[in-house]
Specification:
The complex is a heterodimer of chains A (about 1350) and B (about 120). With about 1350 residues, chain A is α+β, with helices and mostly antiparallel strands. Chain A has 42 helices and 47 strands. Classes of the chains: A alpha+beta (about 1350), B alpha/beta (about 120).
Chain lengths: ~1350, ~120
């Protein structure tokens, strides 16, 4: 709609010009008359109406505009009077204005508005400007007026005012009807003579009119229009709706458009004629209603009318739309309230909360349910911070990131996450958020949160059960395949069969075939057919299930043993259906065979174990809990002291348990039955012979039987082990001693052996030891008893040596004296060496030698020398003179002491005779008598019995005093030789022991005169060589008997012996009948022959020990190989990685080479480079294979110089990928250079591998720090050492010792023998393996050290190994 | 192939890292090789790279971590993973994150060339 701007009034310039013109007109100046015509033309050309009048008011000029508007000439206007062109209502105002302007002097200007009649009779509103004109003298010369048409402007102003009023009403939300009525009245005012009507379109099934307003129309007419169907043929209003355009019905009765309609008659019946109908078009383009103006006369609308209609139709549209939207709003509000009501209920039911969130202000508005879901206090306004804190930590980052991203993108989003409620519950929420478009400047979300915990849980449960079902199916299929069990169904009535895949396989029938009963019956082995059919018939007749074993022959001619089991069920139609399974059990027979084979293997392995068990006194057992079957190793029978033909039962076991331990064992067994968990227990048993034994049982469930609980375990006799160890050590010590003391047979006498446990102070003495110490064998020797017996002067030194030994564990030797209960003094020499087998505490094995004889001999020598110089100083030798005839005797003081006579009483021969030992009296008396009779010198050994009852051995030498010839006088000396006599007796006894010991220990003695090739052998040596005892031996014979491999060493010995070097050698002998014997020979040169080498020595047959050692070594090697293979198997993926890398290189390089060569021209230079790379990679791959081959090999240990660094690097290279996979960071700190060590390379690598893998395992649970693994080497004090340091869970120092026990494991899949084997390997190398928690930081360090400059030791080790 | 396209090989293992670029070069690709994910990220070639042949297990940043990092940097490079460890979990993970292929070492010439071509076609 156009907005017309009203024309502006005359400008000041316009009046200026006008004044000039009028002045000219008024001038009577004849000179100016000529100009008058021109001026009139000019005025005529002016727009608007201009007139002039005489000072009296008589109009003397009107311009053309005036005439055209009024349709009058100047003359006609003068005749009629100017007032006639004024609207009757405006005449009075005009007249009074005119007259009032004449009154003042000078006359004033007139400004007024008035309606002037146009030629066609229409009045229009004009602005009238009338000014007085003055001549040069200032006298009134006339009047001039300019009338400006302001009709349009004022109409527009009125319209605007009306529109404004209406719009205000609309805006304030006034009711529609009064607004529309108001609107009609305003239009009627603006357009006089009009009657307005507003009809509203009701969009019902049939669109119809409703009267919106028609305040000035006759009510009857309004009533007639109310509810009128909208019909374009009825009248202009209907047509306006349909055509959406303004319809002018100027004169309805004459209008052909309504010729057939009753409307013209209706409208004229109410005194109306014209009707202009304009559609009220809404903002969406829909027709809301009709705005119509009626007039009483037939009349076309002016352009102003049309504009008016347009404008007010539009305002009516706004009012109607506003009203409708108000209604809609109210309805919406009601709906919203209702919806809200339902929503709250719905939210609660669906656990859905809603909220709004202003992302800028963090203002959140939550529904009640939302509070309930989050379990927040509705009194506290929720914030993002609170929300974020409530989100499950695992979901927090992702959820907030999603939220931030959506906010950033100003997009809605949906997110699922978990929250942790203030009470600690976990809920699964699903939140959907949409951006509200109303806020362009910021992101405001409207969202809902649904608690989907229940459904999540249900989903999870569903998924789990589905997964279970799938798994179960999978297992079933796999199980069927594995167990060769097929399933089938068989309908008895129809003989319909349905087979599973496996059933087809069993019958050897193509799965495409439909199985038939005849096929089945034909397939049964002829020998089984009749019986099978009979059984089937019987079962079907009885309606029972069946189970039968029979053979079938497949179409391929294969005979199979099958087991068929079926149960009968009825289907929906009541038919008899058998559902069953058929199992091919021919394979299980093969499996049984395989089982037997593996059992045989197990038995073989058991034999190896047996050797180990016997040594360690460990029995093993298996216990099948379900079947309550026990299986014992031989050693176990020995431990329990049960005859090996008795089948062990748990009842038997329980009955043997010490009453105090029964409850614990019972509890343990029932726990084991229930849980299948591993167990370990120390308890006591009472053997059938009444002995109490302490047993340690360790059992672990074997994984070989997944369907039932079967334990495999070990029993260790703890008590017996200690005794056995002691016995072993004692026998070893005996052997050592025998060898050592054989160097001089003398030294072997008077040697007792003992063990001493420094921790418990327990001692174990040999019989000889008791004799030496003169202690009662029935009384346990203690340190106190021992020290008490030690000579006071030596006591401190002896105690110091022992306590030093106890503290340091170092071997010691000590010489000291003891005082026997009878006051005798003995010189003892004790050598103690620590028992290497016992690591946890210091236990000594030692020998104590009585060296009194030697000491005495030394003393005797000293005495002899002293005797020569001063006889009186002879200790313990008394001297005397004896005048035979007078029996006058003169004794030295010493003699009195020896005989224990009172020096005050002169001794007589009867006194002497009385003191002689009764057994010697006769013999000694006879000698003395003969001397007295003959005067011959005599020498006598005899015993005396002292007054205190002691026996003394005396040695008396008497010589006749040559100087006295007249009578017989003897001078002599008597020596107390008690001690040497005792020593002699002991020597004799010791010799007896030695002989027995030699026989027992298969030790023979020999002398050997090298130059003379003279050999003197004891019987044992003959037996060892397999020679006839007594045969004359030559070097040649001996050399022929030496094992060829040992010949070189024996020859070395010979050449050494020729120049008098002592020897000590282990070598092998091949006996004449082909047996191989191991001998240990020790030879010492005898000093008695300074001119030529003559050896005295011992040869021990160590064949049995060697064989046992070799068996043990074989078993150990076997076990080590198994452990190595187990360790390597964990590296499989790593190894595949190591090989795959170079292989990828090889293939790629080969492909590249091929392309280089195929190019035109061939690129030979590049091809060569790639071929070189191929070779390099191939070498790398083969290096890996080589290393592996070595590690997997099953060879016996070989000792050779080994570079520990090389060995370690190879192991680390093989495990690098595995370590990387386990996220272990490997670091090495190797010493700058390491000496070579004499070692078995593969075994050392096994130890390193074991330690590295253990370290990696120890760190598998480490997540909060780096998994650092250090491998370090260093060298020092003759040892090289390798440390493997992890940062894992560490070790309990108290359990460090246990780590190295066999079958001790902390790993669920470990064998528990890795460390035990590693330790035995390291010890076989003369080294030590130890473990300690890290001093700084978490984790543990495992270290081993091996002597590196021990070539000699290594040689010894290599012989033993 | 009108325009030569840059294929980068990232592998800590010498064998593959030295061999593969030559083979790919013989097929007309521009190639560069890096011994670690970090070295590749630090290079000027990231933007120009159209295809990445990437080892899974490497010390430091692993292949999948590099993939994640590139995604974070919004650098879209088609990735062909190569590995000497068969690991279905990692395979599923990297393929889900948009890797073009997952090849097990050793792979054939055809396999790697097809994988690189497919990767480039995708980009």
């Amino acid at each position: 709609m156009r907005v017309r701007r009203s024309r502006s009034g005359p400008t000041p310039k316009y009046y200026g010009r006008l004044r000039g013109v009028v002045g000219i007109l008024r001038g009577a100046h004849p000179r100016k008359r000529g100009m008058e015509t021109d001026l009139r033309r000019l005025l005529d050309a002016l727009p608007g109406m201009v007139w002039t009048a005489t000072p009296e008011g008589e109009c003397n000029f009107v311009n053309r505009g005036w005439c055209e508007y009024t349709g009058l000439t100047l003359e006609a206007a003068r005749a009629a009077g100017w007032e006639t062109i004024f609207h009757p209502e405006d005449v009075d105002a005009a007249m009074s204005a005119w007259s009032s302007t004449l009154t003042p002097s000078p006359p004033a200007e007139i400004h007024m508005e008035a309606r002037l009649r146009r030629a066609d009779g229409v009045y229009r509103r004009f602005k009238l400007e009338t000014r007085p004109l003055h001549d040069a003298e200032g006298r009134l010369a006339g009047w001039c007026g300019a009338n400006t048409d302001v009709e349009d402007r004022s109409r527009a102003e009125a319209q605007l005012a009306a529109e404004k009023r209406l719009l205000e009403r609309v805006a304030t939300g006034s009711a529609l009807k009064p607004t529309l009525e108001d609107l009609c009245q305003l239009v009627e005012q603006l357009s006089p003579g009009s009657f307005c009507s507003i009809l509203l379109v009701e969009n019902a099934d049939v669109p119809r009119f409703r009267v919106g307003a028609g305040p000035s129309l006759p009510p009857g007419y309004n009533d007639a229009l109310e509810g009128l169907g909208i019909d374009p043929g009825y009248g202009p209003c209907g047509l306006a709706v349909v055509s959406r355009s303004t319809i002018i019905a100027e004169d309805p009765p004459c209008d052909p458009r309504w010729a057939g309609s009753p409307w013209p008659q209706l409208v004229t019946g109410f005194g109306l004629r014209s009707c202009w109908s304009a559609p009220i078009v809404g903002s969406q383009g829909d027709v809301l209603g009709i705005f119509a103006i009626y007039r009483a006369r037939a009349q076309r609308p002016s352009s102003q009318d049309e504009e008016l209609v347009d404008r007010f139709a539009r305002i009516a549209g706004i009012a109607i739309e506003r009203a409708r939207s108000d209604v809609a709003l109210k309805a919406g509000e009601a709906n919203l309230r209702r919806a809200n009501h339902f929503l709250t209920g719905g939210q609660r039911l669906s656990r859905t909360g809603s909220f709004s969130l202003d992302t800028v202000s963090d203002e959140q508005v939550w529904s009640a349910e939302n509070y309930r879901i989050w379990e927040f206090d509705p009194a506290i306004p929720p914030t993002m911070e609170m929300v974020a804190a409530a989100i499950h930590p695992e979901d927090r980052a992702a959820t907030l990131a999603a939220f931030a991203a959506a906010t950033h993108a100003k997009e809605g989003f949906e997110v699922s996450y978990r929250i942790v409620t203030p009470k600690g519950g976990v809920k699964h929420l699903n939140t959907v958020m949409e951006v509200i478009p109303e806020f362009p400047d910021r992101v405001v979300y409207l969202g809902s949160s649904q608690d989907v915990t229940q459904s999540r849980l249900a989903e999870a449960a569903l998924r789990t059960s589905e997964a279970r079902l799938v798994r179960a199916n999978m297992y079933l299929t796999a199980a069927q395949r594995l167990t060769k069990t097929g399933s089938y169904s068989w309908c008895v009535e129809t003989d319909e069969l349905d087979w599973s895949d496996e059933t087809y396989r069993i019958w050897g029938v193509d799965p495409a075939c439909k199985p038939e009963m005849s096929m089945v019956l034909d397939g049964i082995h002829p020998e089984d057919r009749a019986a099978t059919i009979e059984a089937l018939d019987a079962a079907t007749l009885a309606g029972a299930g069946f189970e039968m074993f029979h053979r079938i022959i497949t179409p391929q001619g294969v005979t199979k043993h099958v087991r068929s089991v079926a149960t009968r069920m009825a289907d929906l139609t009541g038919r008899s259906i058998y559902v069953g399974s058929i199992q091919d059990i021919s394979e299980s027979r093969i499996a049984e065979e395989a089982l037997k084979t593996s059992e045989a293997r197990l038995r073989r392995a058991n034999r190896y174990l047996k050797a180990a068990q016997t040594i360690s006194r460990v029995g093993s057992f298996t216990w099948d809990v379900e079947r309550d079957e026990l299986d014992w190793s031989d050693e176990n029978y020995r431990i329990w002291d049960v005859a090996s033909d008795i089948t062990p039962t748990t009842a038997l076991v329980v009955s043997a348990i010490h009453p105090e331990d029964v409850e614990a064992v019972h509890g343990l067994m029932s726990r084991a039955r229930e849980t299948g968990g591993d167990f370990e227990l120390v308890y006591r048993i009472l053997t059938p012979r009444g002995a109490i034994k302490h047993l340690q049982t360790i059992a672990t469930r074997t994984t070989d039987f997944p369907d039932r609980v079967v334990y495999i375990g070990t029993n260790q006799d703890v008590t017996e082990t200690k005794l056995a160890e002691a016995a072993l050590r004692a026998s070893e010590a005996a052997a050592t001693r025998a060898n050592k003391y054989l160097r001089g047979a003398q030294a072997l006498s008077r040697t007792g052996s003992f063990t001493w446990d420094t921790q418990t102070n327990e001692q174990d003495w040999s019989a000889e030891n008791f004799r030496i110490w003169e202690l009662d064998p029935a009384v346990d020797p203690t340190i106190d008893i021992v020290l008490e017996r030690v000579h006071p002067e030596d006591r401190e030194a002896a105690a110091a040596a022992m306590s030093a030994g106890r503290d340091t564990g170092e071997d010691y030797e000590v010489s000291y004296r003891i005082v026997t209960p009878v006051g005798g003094v003995k010189y003892l020499y004790t050598v103690a060496t620590r028992a290497q087998e016992i690591r946890d505490r210091v236990v000594y094995v030692g020998s104590t030698q009585d060296v009194t004889a030697r000491k005495t001999a030394e003393a005797e020598l000293a005495r002899t020398n002293a005797y020569l110089t001063a006889a009186q100083r002879l200790s313990r030798t008394g001297s005397y003179t004896w005048d035979v005839a007078s029996d006058q005797q003169d004794w030295s003081a010493e003699n009195f002491r020896i005989w224990e006579f009172d020096p005050a009483a002169p001794p007589t021969m009867p006194m002497v005779m009385a003191r002689l030992h009764p057994d010697d009296r006769q013999r000694a008396g006879a000698s003395i008598e003969r001397g007295a009779r003959t005067g011959e010198d005599f020498e006598l050994h005899y015993r005396i019995v002292t007054p205190s009852g002691g026996v003394k051995h005396l040695h008396t030498v008497s010589t006749r005093v040559k100087e006295i010839t007249d009578r017989l006088v003897y001078i002599g000396s008597t020596q107390d030789v008690t001690e040497s006599k005792l020593a002699e007796a002991q020597l004799a006894r010791a010799n007896t022991y030695l002989t027995a010991a030699q026989r027992l220990s298969q030790t023979g003695s020999f002398t050997w005169d090298v130059e003379a090739d003279a050999h003197n052998w004891s019987e044992v040596i003959y037996r060892v060589f397999g020679f006839e005892p007594g045969t004359s031996i030559t070097m040649d014979m001996m050399m022929r008997a030496i094992h060829p491999d040992d010949l070189l060493e024996v020859q070395n010995l010979l050449s050494g012996a020729r120049v008098g070097e002592n020897f000590d050698l282990v070598f092998r002998i091949v006996t004449p009948n082909g047996d191989i014997r191991h001998a240990h020979v020790v030879g010492h040169r005898i000093d008695q022959y300074p001119d030529r080498p003559v050896f005295m020595g011992a040869l021990q047959d160590i064949t049995a020990r060697k064989m046992a050692e070799e068996d043990l070594n074989r078993a150990r090697a076997e076990l080590a190989h198994v452990a190595r293979a187990a360790a390597l198997s964990t590296l499989t993926a790593s190894i595949a990685h190591e090989v795959s890398q170079p292989l990828a290189g090889i293939i790629t390089n080969a492909s590249t080479t091929q392309r280089m060569l195929a190019a035109e021209p061939p690129n030979l230079a590049r091809a060569q480079v790639t071929v070189q790379r191929t070779l390099r990679d191939a070498n790398r791959a083969s290096e890996v294979i080589k290393r592996l081959r070595a590690l997997f090999s099953r060879q016996l240990p070989t000792f050779e110089p080994v570079d520990l660094h090389d060995a370690a690097r190879e192991v680390l290279a093989l495990s690098a990928s595995e370590l990387q996979r386990r996220r272990v960071i490997l670091r090495t700190r190797f010493a700058e250079s390491l000496p070579l060590v004499q070692a078995d390379r593969i075994q050392l690598q096994q130890v390193i591998l074991n330690l590295v893998l253990n370290a990696a395992d120890a760190m598998s649970d480490v997540h909060d720090r780096a998994r650092d693994l250090w491998v370090c080497t260093r060298v020092g004090s003759g040892q090289i050492r390798l440390d493997v340091r992890d940062s894992g869970t560490g070790i309990d120092p108290e359990r460090a010792a246990q780590l190295f026990q066999p079958f001790h494991t902390t790993k669920p899949d470990g064998m528990g023998i890795g460390l035990s084997i590693s330790r035995s390997i390291v010890e076989a190398h003369g080294g030590r393996l130890s473990a300690a928690p890290n001093e700084t930081g978490p984790g543990a360090t495992f270290s081993f050290s091996i002597p590196c400059d021990a070539t000699a030791e290594a040689g010894l080790v290599s012989r033993q190994a | 192939m009108a325009k030569r396209q840059l294929v980068c090989v990232v592998d800590d293992d010498d064998s593959v890292r030295e061999a593969l670029p030559d083979l790919l070069a013989s097929y007309g690709f521009d190639t560069e090789s890096f011994s670690s994910a970090e070295a590749f990220l630090a290079s000027d070639s990231v933007a120009a790279t159209r295809c990445l042949v990437l080892d899974v297990a490497m010390p430091g940043m692993t292949g999948p971590e590099l993939q994640t990092e590139l995604a974070r940097l919004q650098v879209d490079i088609a990735i062909v993973f190569i590995t000497a460890h068969a690991d279905p979990l990692i395979e599923a993970q990297v393929l889900q994150h948009g890797a073009c292929a997952f090849l097990l070492k050793p792979f054939t010439e055809t396999a790697i060339v097809e994988a690189v071509n497919a990767a480039l076609a995708r980009g």
